[in-house]
Structure formats: C-alpha cells, structure tokens
Amino acid sequence: MPKLKPRTIFPRKEEDDTINRGIASDPDTYELGGDEMKHLKRVGRPNSDNPKVLISDGQPTYALAHMKGDLDVMQACMRAEIENYWRQPDGDRLTAAPYFFERTAILQRKAKNYGAEVAACEAWVEIVEDYKNQDSVKNGSGTKVWLGSRSRKIEDRPPKARDLLKRQHESGQKSG
Hints:
The chain contains seven helices and two strands; from the N terminus they run H-H-E-E-H-H-H-H-H. The chain is an all-alpha fold. Strands 1-2 form a two-stranded antiparallel ribbon.
C-alpha cells in the first residue's frame, strides 16, 4: 500500500457504515470479490499515436539535458526532437525543444565542425517555419517559440558558421 499523506483522515465507523449502505442501495454499484478482481485488466493512459521519442536507454530527451557538454547525447536528443516533430500530424504539431539544437550547434562549433553547426541551425529554422503554419499557432493558442532568445540565437549562428567554414576550407583544414 502506498505511503499516505500525514494528514490523511479516515472515515469514522458511522461514516463508513453510511458509505457502505449507499453502495448497497445502488443497484449499479457493487464491490468486486477476489475472483472478479483477478479477471480485470489494468487500465491507464491510452496509447498515443505520437508518443514522446525515447532515446538512450529509454529516457526522454528532457532527462538528458544535464549532459549538455556531450555532443553525442545532444545530437541524439536533437534527432529525437526532429523525428518527434515531423511524425506529428500536419496542423496539430507541437514545437520541438530548441535547447538541443542550440547545444548541438555550440558543441559543433567547439569541435570546428562548422558544416554540422549550420545543419543543426537549419533543421531548427525548418521546424520553426513549419510550426508557424500549425493550427494552434494560427488561432493564437500555440507558443511563439521563434520569438524566444534561444530560437533567435540559433537563427543568428549560421552566417558566422558559414564564414568560419569558408576560412577553414581556404586554410585547408579538415571540416565536419
């Protein structure tokens, strides 16, 4: 049995008797016996057509946000956000989390993989442009994620990354 809250109040005997009399007087209500309980199935939240994409040992992306310095984890989270976004039905899509796109772009720049940085930013911009056309955004109930500082930072990164990529190619360095 689960632990009860400290202030849980149990019904007194008289109240319990009143409850049981009410149950007994209602023809549609009855208590299940042990044999009947065995045949019942557990019922929970119905299966969703669009479940949250799970990655890395079955953890949702938000559970891995603390690993912000690990490029492989951030890329996996970004890919999961991309897959989850595009899997949703057109018109009813919920936005992806920009955090993983930004972290991936930052880590790619640190690794001097400027092409991959641009690709991460462009993936975010593509999602934002599509998200602006979703019904929830058009009717005013969706979040305006593109106005947030993180989204703007992602959108501002590609010109600098392209410049760095151009310089990298000119100097003959390896690019990612």
